[in-house]
Design brief:
Blueprint: E1 2-4, E2 11-17, H1 20-30, E3 35-36, E4 42-44, E5 48-51, E6 61-65, E7 76-87, E8 97-103, E9 112-113, E10 117-120, E11 145-154, E12 165-170, E13 174-180, E14 183-192, E15 195-197, E16 211-219, E17 224-229, E18 232-237, E19 269-270, E20 286-294, H2 300-305, E21 319-323, E22 332-333, E23 343-347, H3 362-365
Parallel strand pairs: 3-7
Antiparallel strand pairs: 1-6, 2-5, 2-7, 4-6, 7-8, 9-20, 10-19, 10-23, 11-16, 11-20, 12-13, 12-19, 13-14, 14-15, 16-17, 17-18, 20-21, 22-23
């Protein structure tokens, strides 16, 4: 939605959109090649604006852009809106038209901010008195290989107060993160029963406020583990594993009997590891706009090609979970894989006694102005 106001002292003016000839003239003047935006994709709140006596502005006139998902991806359209005539005031030729450029971008433009929140996946968890995961998640147990992918922007590593930025996984079992005690705070690391990987290396630090596609692949049979940053290999070992770590189980952990009971297992989270809900010292200070789990070790080519989208997730044979974080509001996150284990955003508690949640409003949880650069595009 766009808002604009006409600044005149009194009178009224009629408003209309321009014919295609005006778009042709605009293209000629500016050496562009925009098509006119089809009429079904916009509407004016009113066809008239009135400036009351004694006022210098009219009330804002809204123009609504609608059904933009029907537009061709990455093609820009022009929508001119003009003051056609006026009563009681003259119009200046150079200020009678507003030109709106409208584009359905292929870039990711929605992300969640997890500074005071984390993401749980209830379907992965075994109820306290149960034996099976609550959702359709049995496929995530007994894995012989796995790939984690996450698109994130860490806005504050907060070295003074935290040691870890938790990305996704299960603490002390299969936890993908940045930082550790005695380890570079801005370097990727994983901890499993086979140990921690990789070795500290200050040449591998992530930057604050920069979008990254981060991936790890692990194949137990070959003992090969690889980290990828923006689709390019960063770290590799071909001797990572031990006899005690013969399979990966992400959906066999038991929940607490009630929130705060502390009688459950460490669970799979995005943006949180093992600490209690009122202890914010391993959270992810930043944004997440996609997270995926695969039941195979993806190749570098596969990761590079599909870093920002999976075209047909329902029919991807090895896609075990896929959260796109494209809701833009609310607390529920859809799983686009065929398993449909939807996730849920949870606010941390301010303290144990009150169990009062942090007051994170929707506009803080889903910030505006998001646009994730696509580094694998061939322009």
């Amino acid at each position: 939605m766009k808002v604009w106001a006409l600044c005149i002292k009194k009178g009224c003016a009629s408003v209309l959109t321009q014919p295609p000839s005006q778009v042709e003239a605009y293209n000629s003047r500016n050496n562009t090649s925009y098509d006119i935006l089809p009429a079904k994709h916009y509407r004016l709140e009113s066809n008239e604006m009135t400036i009351r006596a004694g006022k210098i502005n009219s009330a804002p006139l809204h123009i609504y852009f609608e059904n933009l998902t029907e537009l061709e991806i990455d093609k820009a359209y022009l929508c001119p809106v003009s003051l056609n005539s006026a009563q009681g005031v003259g119009l200046l030729d150079g200020s009678t038209t507003y030109w709106y450029i409208v584009k359905r971008s292929s870039a990711i433009t929605t992300a969640v901010d997890l500074r005071y929140c984390y993401v749980e996946v209830p379907g992965f968890y075994v109820p306290k008195w149960g034996t099976e995961p609550a959702g359709n998640a049995a496929h995530l147990n007994n894995l012989k290989a796995v790939t984690f992918e996450i698109i994130t922007r860490i806005t504050n590593f907060d070295e003074a107060n935290t040691d870890i930025s938790s990305l996704m996984g299960i603490e002390q079992y299969f936890c993908f993160r940045a930082g550790d005690a005695g380890f570079p705070r801005q370097q990727l690391q994983i901890q499993t029963p086979a140990g921690k990987f990789p070795e500290a290396n200050k040449a591998k630090l992530l930057k604050e406020n920069e979008w990254y596609h981060l991936a790890l692949t692990y194949d137990i049979a070959t003992k090969t583990i690889i980290f990828y940053v923006n689709g390019k290999e960063q770290s590799r070992s071909t001797n990572y594993g031990n006899s005690e770590f013969s399979e990966i189980k992400l959906a066999n952990r038991k929940q607490e009997s009630f929130p705060g009971a502390s009688d459950g297992d460490w669970l799979f989270y995005i943006g949180r590891s093992y600490n209690d809900r009122w202890l914010i010292d391993r959270q992810l200070n930043g944004n997440v706009c996609e997270a995926r789990i695969w039941d195979v070790a993806r190749t570098q080519q596969e990761i590079w090609k599909n870093m920002y989208d999976i075209e047909d997730p329902e029919n991807e044979a090895h896609l075990a979970a896929y959260w796109k974080f494209n809701e833009g509001s609310g607390n529920d996150i859809k799983d686009y894989s065929k398993y449909h284990n939807d996730a849920h955003i949870v606010r941390y508690w301010k303290d144990f006694n009150s169990k009062e949640e942090y007051d994170v409003k929707n506009e803080e949880l889903w910030p505006s102005g998001i646009e994730v650069p696509q580094v694998n595009r061939e322009d």
